[in-house]
Design goal:
The chain is built from 6 helices and 2 strands, in the order ααααβααβ. The chain is mainly alpha-helical and about 200 residues long. The protein has 2 domains: about 130 residues; about 45 residues, no CATH class. Strands 1-2 form a two-stranded antiparallel sheet. Keywords: Membrane, Transmembrane, Transmembrane helix.
């Protein structure tokens, strides 16, 4: 499996995505992706290198602006790191999560009339919307699931409302808060509620 970082919360090694053997992995999806996006923007062009580097930049953006310690209040959940992985020994296909991520990213860029991708700090909010859009595409393709939360009968109604409100704001990133809440009230989680 191709991996561009060694440990959780480590910086993404962008040079990894500039290696010729990594760029070669993207050759197999370049033409199908161009063909699929051609009806949205007939003059769209990119190289396999552009696709490879975009995957690196998306991961670096998530690391820089959607991490645990530097997360904005309205930030989307991160795209799971496992969806960015691919095997250098096998070519990428149109069914691979990487293909879906790239298609969603380029579709978003076209719809919003971006001339290019820009992951600088001044574009943080726009890129957070890009990540949210990619996550929606991955959800539609059944590559990710919406998080679920659980409540025990002993959780008071007022606490349920508060937690549910928080979950909706942060797109169900409630599992951490629920565990914290569970520790505070010392009760097991039994019932599961799905939020959207």
């Amino acid at each position: 499996m191709a991996v561009a970082r060694k440990a959780k919360d480590a910086n993404v090694q962008l040079q990894f995505y500039e290696q010729s053997n990594i760029i070669t992995c993207f050759e197999t999806i370049k033409e199908p992706l161009l063909s699929e996006l051609h009806h949205q923007q007939p003059d769209l062009t990119f190289k396999a290198r552009d696709l490879s580097i975009l995957i690196g930049y998306l991961q670096q953006f998530q690391q820089d602006f959607l991490g645990l310690n530097n997360r904005a209040n309205n930030a989307p959940l991160r795209i799971p790191a496992k969806l960015f992985k691919f095997d250098q020994e096998r070519p990428l296909t149109i069914d691979s999560p990487v293909y879906h991520i790239l298609r969603a990213a380029y579709t978003y860029r076209i719809v919003h009339n971006w001339r290019k991708f820009d992951f600088g700090p001044s574009k943080k909010n726009k890129n957070a919307d890009l990540i949210r859009s990619i996550r929606d595409e991955l959800y539609q393709a059944s590559l990710i699931n919406l998080p679920t939360i659980g409540f025990d009968d002993s959780v008071p109604s007022s606490a349920r409302k508060t937690i549910t409100s928080l979950a909706k704001k942060i797109h169900c990133m409630l599992l951490f808060f629920l565990l914290l809440f569970k520790v505070l009230i010392r009760s097991p989680v039994i019932y599961v509620v799905k939020l959207k």
